[in-house]
Amino acid sequence: MVELTSFDDLINPRLHGKFEPEPVYDVPSEAPSEKASIALDETRTPVVIVDNLHVKYQVYSSGKSVGAAGAKRLLQSSTRGIREVHAVKGVSFVAYENESIGVIGSNGSGKSTLMRTITGLTTPAEGSVYASSRPNMLGVGAALIPDLSGDKNIMLGGLALGYNRQEINEMREDITKFAELEEFIDLPMRTYSSGMSARLKFAIAASKQHDILIVDEALAVGDARFRKRSEAKIREIRENAGTIFLVSHSMNSILDTCNRVIWIEKGVLMMDGDSKTVVDAYKAKKK
Ligand SMILES: Nc1ncnc2c1ncn2[C@@H]1O[C@H](COP(=O)(O)OP(=O)(O)OP(=O)(O)O)[C@@H](O)[C@H]1O
To answer: What are the ABC transporter domain coordinates in residue numbering (predicted)?
Structure first.
């Protein structure tokens, strides 16, 4: 059984000489809701534990999310016009090593919010997320620069993933090949079609072996053929002892790639089980 540790420990272990199994987040609410008890399978290695997770957004009624300036205004006189969106409502589950978990649900059901909270990008209102290592969202988009060539962007993306120059030089041919951009790799990325950029981003991000990887559908774009190859790559990452979450509206992708599915509707966990059972139940409900 692995020791579950907090993000703080992962970020700077030297600051945490003594191991204290703190949750990634633990924000007690004034009136805690009844906690669902989590059943752990003792025979397998848990890598992510989501315990009674609630996520809320504060939004202006204009639809804008409340940023730093908005939060300041919240402290001032009128708070009218601010609405709360309760995007994830008491979700609990345990993900184990080597699982490939599909995350499905209607538009706006809370899938991306749940994934962002697992990676630590979004703070929960209540509940906890525990992880054995830092979960990574597949994507290096933010690190890339459109005016630079695909090749230079491989270097940038690789550095963003933590590789050194020599390692990137050894990988660049494989990445270029996987992205099918051999003839275009010296051209600026802004001249690429959206499919070509998506392929390059996927190829760079997937070059790293992630222990816990989250793939949001929006990133797994490209044409049908590339989609098949990216699915195969996802399976390969999984086989190398990784755990993968795949958010998708394509039930075929989910059935081809995942051995377990979590179905969320309006922020509530509807079903968690083997892919076919959950996808069938979801399809039946959607009819
Ligand atoms: N940054 C944000 N600020 C305010 N509300 C948000 C924010 N992000 C998401 N929401 C709201 O939270 C709810 C869940 O959204 P989320 O994006 O997690 O759903 P989703 O299941 O991923 O949707 P889709 O399938 O359409 O991508 C929605 O009501 C959405 O409007």
So the answer is: 72-287
